[in-house]
Design goal:
Elements: E1 6-10, E2 13-16, H1 17-33, E3 41-45, H2 50-61, E4 65-68, H3 75-85, E5 89-92, H4 94-98, E6 106-108, H5 109-114, E7 132-139, E8 145-151, H6 152-165, E9 173-175, H7 183-195, E10 198-200, H8 207-216, E11 221-225, H9 226-235, E12 247-251, H10 257-262, E13 266-272, E14 277-281, H11 288-291, E15 296-297, E16 302-305, E17 310-314, E18 321-322, H12 326-332, E19 333-334, E20 337-346, E21 352-356, E22 362-364, E23 367-369, H13 371-379, E24 384-394, E25 398-407, H14 415-420, E26 430-433, H15 447-457
Parallel strand pairs: 1-10, 3-4, 3-5, 5-6, 9-10, 9-11, 11-12, 12-13, 25-26
Antiparallel strand pairs: 1-2, 7-8, 8-18, 13-14, 14-15, 16-17, 17-20, 19-20, 20-21, 22-23, 24-25
Helix pairs in contact: 1-2, 6-7, 8-9
Length: about 450
């Protein structure tokens, strides 16, 4: 790897690989001074930044386990994740550290910079059990988040599998258009640093800032959801991406036919937290029909559809299991296969088509939103007798949650204000008051009827 090659580029700051290595060595020493050793867990809650990346790499070098924390979650949600993961320390941006929940040793970036580094050597490889690299939180069908335990071997295998189909080289620049607390964002780091490529940090995830970065910086790759890429192209007056862009990897749902026509570089992928991001990828240069699918499995990954229609994955990218949840782990890991819960089909050429997301998952702007979590929050209000949440189409976000609420009395409380202290902003639903909710014979909410009714009214 060329030490003079660019490693990171952000507004007002850039590092080559030699400078990055020096920063990581210092940061590793700071972790050691704070008492972090091999196997300890380290929380990290901050927006995408050079400092976030340096801290992440230092955690790996120290042999510790990264616990990336979503900056958009409410305090109760973060408290629950901290209670489960039990990090030795948690690093945070100054703003988030100032209002961090108690019970965890928080270290603000300002305090972090003042820590005097200790010994900075890399941690020795442990013998025996696989070395955990990260605990990345996802959501389950009950709305409770689960911590997917990702090993170092998982991350290496994932980066190598992606590189076999979409190779990177020094001089390539991947726009970090996903938050690093998502497995997709972590995948960008692993792929770029494994190839000696550069990570470009935009000012924000807004379509305007992403479009500006694509236009003004020598970006060659980016990761987006369909709705965001459509807004980028709309912001460019309908013009496609610059010719230097080799690939726009589209996750979180299918690539629309309109986007396939407007953006030759758009290639779909399918993956999940439990598989360390990508499982499939449309091959660059594929024809239109293939680009309307999620592509074929990456090398080294086995993919099948079970008799019940559920997509299953096997290979070195599959997580070790869910943190402290043997039952949940056993439910999805069977005989080496990961049951994704998504429904799909595989065509004669091996291309995957995802027919339905897990259970009633809502994908809003690339964020996974589970109806049960919102329903539980609504039912915590004393005036709410019943609640049902479904996803509805939205031009900007692709899909947003809609809550049908039955009240106990005539007064209509401000439920949005009630939810704002309990849920992340992207989970806040539109609210419609109803007299009653349709239910099946077994008492469960009849989501299909609700969705059909909403579709007929649109």
């Amino acid at each position: 790897m060329n030490p003079d090659a660019p490693a990171l580029a952000a507004a007002g700051e850039s590092l080559d690989y030699r400078e990055l290595a020096a920063r990581v060595a210092t940061a590793t020493g700071r972790l050691r001074t704070l008492g972090v050793g091999a196997g300890d867990r380290v929380g990290l809650r901050a927006a995408n930044s050079v400092e976030w990346i340096v801290a992440c790499l230092a955690v790996e070098r120290a042999g510790a386990v990264l616990v990336p924390l979503n900056t958009r979650l409410s305090d109760p949600e973060i408290e629950w994740q901290l209670g489960l993961s039990r990090p030795k320390i948690a690093l945070a941006s100054d703003e988030l550290a100032a209002r961090a929940p108690r019970g965890t040793r928080w270290v603000s970036f300002e305090e972090w910079r003042r820590v005097r580094p200790g010994e900075t050597g890399a941690a020795s490889e442990p013998e025996g059990a696989p070395r955990d690299a990260a605990i990345v939180f996802t959501s389950g069908t009950t709305g409770r988040p689960k911590g997917a335990v990702i090993t170092r071997a998982n991350r290496i295998a994932s980066a190598r599998a992606a590189a076999a189909v979409l190779p990177l080289a020094p001089g390539d620049r991947w726009l970090a258009s996903l938050p690093f607390f998502h497995v997709g964002g972590l995948g960008i780091l692993a792929r770029c640093f494994g190839a000696g490529a550069c990570i470009e940090l935009p000012d924000s995830f807004s379509a305007d800032d992403l479009s500006r970065a694509v236009e003004q910086s020598p970006v060659t790759h980016l990761s987006v959801v369909d709705a965001t890429l459509r807004r980028i192209i709309e912001g460019r007056g309908g013009r496609g991406l610059p010719d230097r862009v080799k690939a726009a990897v589209v996750g979180g749902g299918p690539v629309s036919a309109a986007l396939v026509e407007a953006c030759p570089q758009a290639i779909a992928t399918y993956g999940l937290t439990e598989s360390c991001a990508m499982v499939t990828l449309v091959r660059p240069g594929a024809g239109r029909d293939e680009r309307l699918t999620a592509g074929r499995a990456l090398p080294g990954i086995d993919l099948r559809v079970a008799p019940d229609g559920v997509i299953e994955v096997r290979g070195p990218v599959v997580m070790r299991g869910y943190l402290d949840d043997e039952d949940a782990t056993a439910a999805v890991l069977r005989d080496g296969w990961l049951r994704t819960g998504d429904l799909g089909e595989i065509d004669a050429r091996g291309n995957l088509r995802v027919l339905a997301r897990r259970d009633d998952l809502i994908v809003s702007g690339g964020e996974n939103v589970y109806p049960a979590e919102i329903e539980q929050a609504l039912l915590a209000h004393p005036a709410v007798a019943d609640a049902l949440v479904v996803g509805v189409p939205d031009e900007r976000w692709g899909e947003v949650p809609l809550a049908l609420v039955v009240l106990r009395g005539p007064a209509e409380p401000d439920l949005r204000a009630f939810l704002e202290t309990r849920l992340a902003r992207y989970k806040l639903p539109r609210i419609v008051f109803e007299r009653e909710l349709p239910r099946l014979a077994n008492g469960k909410p009849d989501r299909a009827t609700v969705k059909s009714r909403l579709a007929g009214a649109s």
